[in-house]
């Protein structure tokens, strides 16, 4: 992974890849916004979309042709009520 992560989600995708979203990190760090895809065939992680808001302790659900990222926290005192969609 390009970012050390905690409090993140891993979502298996129909392509066989795995999407890692979110992390608990400092607000000045870009990593809480970076999503990464893992390819088991090449054993490599690649950075992909940036979330609008970094988050941790959230949920991610595979729906139709995307992953819906829901809720979570921006920091330990600020909760995230918005959701974002990652299109496949």
Characterize the structure shown.
With 88 residues, this protein is an all-beta fold. The chain has one domain (9-87). Helix content is 0%, strand content 47%. The chain has no helices and 9 strands. It has strands spanning 9-12, 18-21, 34-39, 44-50, 59-63, 66-70, 73-75, 78-79, 83-87. Strands 1-2-3-4 form a 4-stranded antiparallel β-sheet, with no helix packed on it. It has a 3-stranded antiparallel β-sheet with strand order 5-6-9, with no helix packed on it. A two-stranded antiparallel ribbon has the order 7-8.
Give helix and strand order, one letter per element, not per position.
Answer: EEEEEEEEE
Overall, the morphology is globular
Mean pLDDT: 88
Structural class: mainly beta
Q: Give the proportion of residues in helices.
A: under 10%
Secondary-structure topology with pairs:
Blueprint: E1 9-12, E2 18-21, E3 34-39, E4 44-50, E5 59-63, E6 66-70, E7 73-75, E8 78-79, E9 83-87
Gist?
This protein has 88 residues and is mainly β. It contains no helices and 9 strands.
Features:
single chain, 88 residues, mainly beta, four-stranded antiparallel sheet
